[in-house]
Amino acid sequence: MALVAYESLIDPSAYPFFAFLFVVIGLFAFSTFAVSELTSTKKNIFKGLTLATIASATLGLGIFFVFLAGGIYV
Amino acid sequence: MRIQLFVTLLISVIALLLCTSSSAAASSNIVKTNWINNDVTRTIDLSTQIAKQTIQIKAKNQGTQSTNIYTVAIPTFVDGHQQIQAFIGDSEKKSLNILQSYTTKSNENQEFNLYDIELDKSYSKDSTLILKVKIISMNQVVAYPPTISQGQNQLVRFTDNAYFTSPYETESQKSTFKLSSSKVESYTQSVIDGQTATQKGQQVVYGPFRNVAPLAFSSVTVHYENNQPFLRLTNLIKEYEVSHWGNIAVETFYWILHGGAKWTGSFSRLDFQRNPAGSAPSHITEITEIVPRESADFYYRDEIGNISSSQYYPKQTETAFKIQPRFPLVGGWKNEFYTGYNLPTAPFLQKDTDTGRFQLTVGAGVSIENIFVQDHTLRFILPEGATDIKVVRTPFGGASKVEESFDIRKTFFDTVGRPVFEIKTEYTSFENYEPIVISYNLSPLAIFHEPLLAIGAVFCLCLFVIVFTRIDLSLLKRSSNKVARTPEVEKNAQQFKQLFDGRVQYHQDMEDAINTFARTGTAQEFQVAKQTLEQKYKESLSSTANKIVSTVSALDPVFSTHLKDLLEKSTQLQQIQSQIADHEAKQRSNKDQSSKSVSRFQYEEIRNKLISTYRKTFDDIITTFESLY
């Protein structure tokens, strides 16, 4: 039986940085997606889905890290 | 005495022979002879509310067989709740297991609780055992008189056996009662075994006694001054919320009570403020809890909200967390509040590299000196997906009642809820707050559950936007005029479309020309531009379109009315545009002649009206036109 101390994947002191980074990128990606979806007359479902994937991945991580940085350890 | 012992032995041997298959409880009715206590030094520390007995035992195995069990007894008449710890030699590193407890009666019909201690090894015949037994007794030091008023000292009473209670014979023993002060009201002074008790300062000594019979018993009481705060927790809930993202959140709920002599009469805040120690000697104004060195983000709150009077002092190996309740506590007063802090996972959460199981090692109670807890609850809120939760090591000895239960709690980013493992026990003291160790299984991928949930939520929002922008939610059907047309009508319709496109273009160009005129141009230039445009769109503006409409009216009357409507509107638009241009020209000429007939305000008003009519008509045309094609 070998016990090793468990460290989290990312050092908790880096959470505010990741929160800021992903929220900025996420909001940018999400607004790009929203603008393209709401204003363009010719709608392309693949373009929409690609933008949605990028936006959700970045903004989702952003929200998650905001929680961690704010002390709500999920 | 010897004869009595002999008789007892004889009876016990007979009893053993008679009921060989009897239970442990029944066979324990007998005095044990396999050990003999050579020398016992018993010290009872009574300086606080907890009676701490430390018993140094030197015993010899005088039985015929080797044994690894040594039994101690506690008379049932004594008040309070006891916790027993036992150690080999003088070190207090590894406590021995307390196997079981059972009740038995001595010859004098006195009841005893017996506790079997599992020794570190088997002790052969004639070998010597050096044992240290600690008995922590809660609620045994009782305030007497039970009520005091402001300015009075707290007096307490302690009653116990003058002898070290043992099921074995003891050759030599001595009991020392260490008090909190030398102010002793009274102590039992009757002659016990030819000895009377002696008081030396803060100590009352009973013994030494020679050749004490098994389960010998003589009740003694000391009554003395003890102004220690009797701080106890009637209820304690300690929660550990483990996050594999690197944090263990600790939250502790306290229901504290000053269990000393009850306060009677009024409480003068003035007197108390002037001289706290003299006015209420056993008051509590501050509680210091020792927490791990790594603790951070402290908070201290109660039902009303945050309490600002708390400080923490990091020390070499620990952190002192000082909390000051909202009001001082005197005897019988209660208070409740909760505190919390965060711990990193690193030293407390460990992973077993062989089995992949996680092991959590944390404190089982609150490290407040001389405190004890009546109802003690520990909760472990583990990450979602944790299974097979087990207690590896518990500081609550084998003799205490421990209940385990499972629950589910839903908090942030949860779907099915987090498993909550609860341990309930009673009467624990700070003396036995060794760490508790629990272990559980958790998939290494489980930590991605929460970020994926957040990503999924945003993705759902995106999908909603995608779907929402693609479906038509308007109540009016936009293409209601678009009905199937016969080929002949369609041919005419296309011709009309070509012509009408030109008209639309003409209106737009005219608009530009008027705008240019309004800004910089002259009336002459505008006239030139107008004529050029009329020339350019001559075909569109001619009556060809009207002819097409009359052709269509014979074939498709409904469609033709729409087309007619379009042409009418276009003519209207032409009129409005020329009105705007005229209005503009008029304003120009007025300006040139410096006439004040039309004010600037009136001019603007008329112009805006015309433009808005123009906009409306133009939009109308476009909508109708688009709906037809």
TrEMBL record, chain A:
Coiled coil: none
Major location (coarse): membrane
Extent of the signal sequence: none
Places the protein is found: Membrane
Protein name: Dolichyl-diphosphooligosaccharide-protein glycosyltransferase subunit OST5
GO cellular component: oligosaccharyltransferase complex
UniProtKB keywords: Membrane, Transmembrane, Transmembrane helix
Origin: domain of life: Eukaryota
Spans traversing the lipid bilayer: 15-36, 48-73
Entry membrane topology: Multi-pass membrane protein
Subunit structure: Component of the oligosaccharyltransferase (OST) complex.
Function field: Subunit of the oligosaccharyl transferase (OST) complex that catalyzes the initial transfer of a defined glycan (Glc(3)Man(9)GlcNAc(2) in eukaryotes) from the lipid carrier dolichol-pyrophosphate to an asparagine residue within an Asn-X-Ser/Thr consensus motif in nascent polypeptide chains, the first step in protein N-glycosylation. N-glycosylation occurs cotranslationally and the complex associates with the Sec61 complex at the channel-forming translocon complex that mediates protein translocation across the endoplasmic reticulum (ER). All subunits are required for a maximal enzyme activity.
Pfam family, one: Ost5
Family: Belongs to the OST5 family.
From TrEMBL, chain B:
Residue ranges the record marks as coiled coil: 566-593
Signal peptide: 1-26
Keywords: Coiled coil, Endoplasmic reticulum, Membrane, Signal, Transmembrane, Transmembrane helix
Residue intervals passing through the bilayer: 452-473
Gene Ontology CC terms: oligosaccharyltransferase complex
Topological relation to the membrane, as annotated: Single-pass type I membrane protein
Keyword Transmembrane helix listed: yes
GO annotation terms (biological process): protein N-linked glycosylation via asparagine
Record bears the keyword Glycoprotein: no
Pathway note: Protein modification; protein glycosylation
Subcellular location: Endoplasmic reticulum membrane
Domain of life: Eukaryota
Subunit structure, interactors included: Component of the oligosaccharyltransferase (OST) complex.
Family, as annotated: Belongs to the OST1 family.
Xref: PANTHER family: DOLICHYL-DIPHOSPHOOLIGOSACCHARIDE--PROTEIN GLYCOSYLTRANSFERASE SUBUNIT 1 (PTHR21049:SF0), RIBOPHORIN I (PTHR21049)
Purpose: Subunit of the oligosaccharyl transferase (OST) complex that catalyzes the initial transfer of a defined glycan (Glc(3)Man(9)GlcNAc(2) in eukaryotes) from the lipid carrier dolichol-pyrophosphate to an asparagine residue within an Asn-X-Ser/Thr consensus motif in nascent polypeptide chains, the first step in protein N-glycosylation. N-glycosylation occurs cotranslationally and the complex associates with the Sec61 complex at the channel-forming translocon complex that mediates protein translocation across the endoplasmic reticulum (ER). All subunits are required for a maximal enzyme activity.
Protein name, entry field: Dolichyl-diphosphooligosaccharide--protein glycosyltransferase subunit 1
Organism: Cavenderia fasciculata (Slime mold)
Gene: ost1
